[in-house]
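The instructor's notes for this session suggest beginning with a concrete chain rather than abstract definitions. Hand out the sequence below and ask the class to guess, before any prediction is shown, which regions might be ordered.
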Amino acid sequence: MKLARSCILTYHSLDETGSVISVRPDVFRAQMTFLAGAQVPVVPLSEVRSTPGAVAITFDDGFRNFFEHAFPVLRQYRLPATVFVVSDYCGGCNDWPTQPKGTDIPSAELMTWSEVEEISRAGIEIGSHTATHPRMGVLAPAAIEAELRASREAIEQRTGKPVRTLAYPYGESTPLVRAAAKHHFSWACGTRLAYLSEDSDNADLPRLDAYYLQNRFWFEGLQSPRGSAYLGLRAFLREMRQKLQSRKSIPNR
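After discussion, reveal the predicted structure:
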């Protein structure tokens, strides 16, 4: 890795379904093995902007397969990570009202609070993914405040640790949403496919979706010129697809 550009990786579910939110467990293990062996600085989310060439690892939704597959690997290699949980759904499954119908997104169990507490004690940072996983951009100000406050307070009560990070469901935010996020959190993550830069907004940090990096060639070239070109093309194609999908009310990846 030749270019000292930091980035945030996004994972969702580690499973075998091949869905748009899925990475196979064996692929994840191989990726973490590479990061550890290549001596890439894998740092907490709070340190990724201040560490040149660093990688931060994040998981959205809090699937139970994180506890089963990712947690042992991260613990083996002593790699930090942040898991954004949907507080009202801990111990349930990803059947929140905004879950799109007619897609390949699998129905899967989410971690219980006892599992969330266990990974927190082991050093995994627990962040907020709101209370109910709504489309934040369409909520009234009072509902935005309620989602953020309820989630933060529930996680803090269960883990005994301050919650400093947020990931917007579907990556959606507006100036109003970001202003509320700044009130409750130090950092908030979106889904814009990009590396970090000096201009990155702490209230809407870009991330690189691991779904696009499952091929070893692209993952291991993450911070090389070929990786930059590949991800730039992916970002362009995704932007075009999202414009088409917005007409059909399909959530953005």
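Then share the key points. The two ends are 26 Å apart (CA to CA). The beta strands are 7-11, 13-14, 22-23, 55-61, 82-85, 125-128, 165-167, 187-193, 205-209.
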